[in-house]
Amino acid sequence: MKAFLECISCIIRQTIEILRRIVRSEKKRQRILAAVIGKMAKVDIHKMSPPEATKYAHDEIQRITGIKDLYKEPKKQNNREALQLYPYLKRLVRKARDPLLMAVRLAIAGNIIDYGALAEFDIKHTVKDVLGKKFAVSDYKRFRRDLKKTKLLLYIGDNAGEIVFDRVLIEELIKKIEVVFVVKSKPVLNDVLMEDAKMVGLDKVVKVIKSGSDFAGTIPSKGTKEFKELYKSAEMVISKGQGNFETLDQEKKNIYFLLKMKCPSLGRVTGFKAGDIILKRSR
Amino acid sequence: MKAFLECISCIIRQTIEILRRIVRSEKKRQRILAAVIGKMAKVDIHKMSPPEATKYAHDEIQRITGIKDLYKEPKKQNNREALQLYPYLKRLVRKARDPLLMAVRLAIAGNIIDYGALAEFDIKHTVKDVLGKKFAVSDYKRFRRDLKKTKLLLYIGDNAGEIVFDRVLIEELIKKIEVVFVVKSKPVLNDVLMEDAKMVGLDKVVKVIKSGSDFAGTIPSKGTKEFKELYKSAEMVISKGQGNFETLDQEKKNIYFLLKMKCPSLGRVTGFKAGDIILKRSR
Question: What's the CATH superfamily of A72-281?
Fold first, then answer.
């Protein structure tokens, strides 16, 4: 989907958050922000997806600060915190009447956890919240049915921390089918990289590949050769999170989007509200 | 107080809201937004208050569109809607154990009503919410005591719609003292102008003067001659809303700030959280 004018204010807000975290001097923050704003003033926002628009800002911050991975520390911390929850998540699945559905719900709960520091208590609280929440749309029945016809499923990851929740769902899926997990090729926001997959041990569970993306979404036609081939041969795709949804929503492919809607403007094209919990099959 | 980096993303968000409302063509919206962003990139945000920073964006929108009053219609609508509530508000005050405190609470409730269209039901709901809410800080006792030593009180208004709630408080105040109501000199956001005071009949109740401000705050030293004189001679000032708070917080004057805190960044300097209900005397 194409970006909105509103994406610009969101990108600038995000830029300020990053600068507060990685740059000490307020003067330098202001200088970098001015450069980012100058860049965004020239971007034709309607010609690209929201994650592609975001890339302009990130590239500028990275160029000026020389910092390649703007979320390195928060990502590690989120992985660590989520890993501590892993036994708890596994227990929830084991005890569930429908373990697959529980694992799906947990994977979406993982999408709610943002990069900021969260105490174990808070994550558990978030998880319980999501477990009690009604899906805005749920294509779970069809999801379940499709799985039976599937040999290979491509699982496109989203964020650090969340990846532990993805692992829990993947461990349910691989009881029946083959799963390949997809990470971003280069650092962008708190999106998962190969190092995150390794940190949470997902590389020991399934094959992990890079998408080719260096922005917070996935465009198959721009993917690596390996990604393109697996994308073509996989009977099913799971796409996690909003950035992947924003770039894959027009694909003609059997994709299941698992996400929490975080953006109020998206409602204009999707009909979903910010805060909605979604398990939706592509058209 | 000085503006924050965060003000920039907020101003751009606000600009987009205005453009969606007053400009039809998405292309034209984008062109104006780019101009505003270009302007904001050059502003030294730390050298001015938030309302002054906002003015840069508004001036640019007004210059390009040729529209002088960007909130003309919403303001009228808010006045109309709030006027319908006037008998209800008066009844609440009449029945209250402490009518003055009730009127103060209602004046703050009025500050919560934003420019968007609100059904009568929603406004009543908001009012009830505020009446049940605890003040984050309340200098009411001192406010009450100060009133006894006061002959003239300057009441600096904030928004349309809200002005009806101000009228209710003012009608309590003038039972004992003289009150002069202050409006902005030129259109900015949904801030009250002379025409709003007339529309809600406040000009029949008290004297109404212009502040000299053409931005969403009040800087006494830049005020009209009349404002400056009354500001000097008034023993008490009531300042409504966040914009006035942001520009008057450093004043050495007996000012009572009545507002709902709307900005999360302000917490950094004030200690208040977004959503807080405040009746606070100046230092």
Answer: Uncharacterised protein PF01937, DUF89, domain 3 (3.40.50.10880)
